Amino acid sequence: MGQDQDTQKQAFEFRSKTSTHGRNMAGARALWRATGMKDGDFEKPIIAVANSFTQFVPGHVHLKDLGQLVCREIEKAGGVAKEFNTIAVDDGIAMGHDGMLYSLPSREVI
């Protein structure tokens, strides 16, 4: 990296700094460390990866591998990837009973 890039990088402050720096955030850092983060990771961008992988929805099964691929690429680029899951709705599983009445409206809530 050139000197200008180093200066720009140092001038940039990640939003995650509110939970990774300062004496009052020691508890939060302890929780981050419990997820496998090391001291040097707290200087990197922490990037959340939302994933709707589930074994209940056939159309979402492949998302497990895709989410892991995205996380690996974030880490290769110098970030810290933290994946979390979100709900997945499947009309097929709900067919034939009252659950079908909630499939489409639930998408508005999600």
Descriptive notes:
The protein has helices spanning 3-11, 17-20, 26-34, 63-76, 91-94, 100-109, and strands at 46-51, 80-85. By secondary structure, it is mostly helical. Strands 1-2 form a two-stranded parallel sheet. It is elongated. The termini are far apart. 3% of the residues are buried. The mean pLDDT is 85.
Kindly list the characteristics that best describe this protein.
2 domains, two-stranded parallel sheet
Order of helices and strands: HHHEHEHH
Number of helices: 6
Q: Give the spatial strand order of the biggest sheet.
A: 1-2
Fraction of residues in β-strands? 5-15%
Question: How many domains is the backbone divided into?
Answer: 2
Tell me, what's the shape?
elongated
Helicity level, as a percent range? 40-55%
Q: End-to-end distance, in Å?
A: 42 Å
Largest sheet: 2 strands, parallel
Q: Give the number of DSSP strands.
A: 2
The chain-level mean pLDDT equals 85
Structural class by helix and strand composition:
mainly alpha
User: Which ranges are low-confidence, i.e. pLDDT below 50, for 5 or more consecutive residues?
Assistant: none
What's the alpha carbon Rg, rounded to whole Å? Answer: 19 Å
